[in-house]
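User: quick one - fold this with adenosine-5'-triphosphate bound?
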Amino acid sequence: MSTPYQIAVIPGDGIGVEVVEAALTILDATGVSFEFNHYEAGDDCKAKHGVALPDETLKGATDAQAVFFGAAGDTAAEVILRMRKELDTFVNLRPSKAFQGAECLYPKTNIVIVRENTEGIYMGLEKEINPGEMHATRVITEAASTRIAKYAFEYATQNEYDTVTAIHKSNVMRLTDGLFLKCSRTVAKDYPNINYEEQLVDSAATLMVMDPYRFQVLLTPNLFGDILSDLAAGLIGGLGLCPSANLGDKYALFEPVHGTAPDIAGKGLANPTAAILCASMMLRHFGELDAAKNVESSLETAIANKQSTADLGGSLSTMDMAQAIINHMKG
Ligand code: ATP
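Assistant: Sure. Structure tokens for the protein plus adenosine-5'-triphosphate:
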């Protein structure tokens, strides 16, 4: 038996707990060997222990080969933003690919957002200048912009996408997004086989709704990537379908794009697809391609057969959908 992959599991709050349980059941069914070590973080953890991200959880995350995270509610910034920073995961990779058989606006959507994950407006540099006047600082550096651009072009090359589109607002934020574009253009020159395009973030939002098939890999600063990935989720049938990977040179953390969804939490209604796609991204990260393909094709079959939760037109609970997927898995 091979040495198990060591995974730090942080289910967090709300539907995070339910979708993570479903995804771990699927991972167990692949036959790949995992050791799952569970840790606490999030709102419930803060209420219980006075801290949203305990040192023990952070240590568990840095000791593991990968982190599997669910969602955190009001404490999201204390938990996930801090973990992204501590683990120096400079890429936030967010694929939005439509499933055959799932009702959605654009059934051939296949957009991957490569979002810069360490700076921009997410650095939390906000201050009160005077009562009634708050300032936020948006940080864009050449080093971070260049490394995320390189990742986007490498990803496009390795995954057979033709086009990378840099998203910006450089007509307003001339210096910060001017630098982001300058770095993107420089990196683009090293990839002559990939088309390089640029799009203002506001026009990109319109075009994604009217003609999403023109987009493939979107290279974005931090906040724009966050917003456009929710938009992309809407194109393919909702937030329940979109996974993400936070990747750095050393660490990898997988999490659904959605949050805790308090309106449906604890009811078994949460769609586990995003978390299950996180599981397949994690399998690919470890080079377990056969297992990843097995999960992905079984998930596609279940969705096409309407063996799904209500948001996709089915009538199954979160765990029943996971079981239906397992029933389609080979081996
Ligand atoms: P948070 O404050 O944690 O971000 P939120 O409810 O504001 O939570 P999301 O959790 O991202 O934001 O979700 C927004 C809405 O989308 C939810 O209220 C829910 O109706 C729907 N939703 C999100 N994830 C799922 C899912 N996995 N399955 C079904 N519906 C979902």
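One thing worth noting: The domain at 105-236 is CATH 3.40.718.10 (Isopropylmalate Dehydrogenase).
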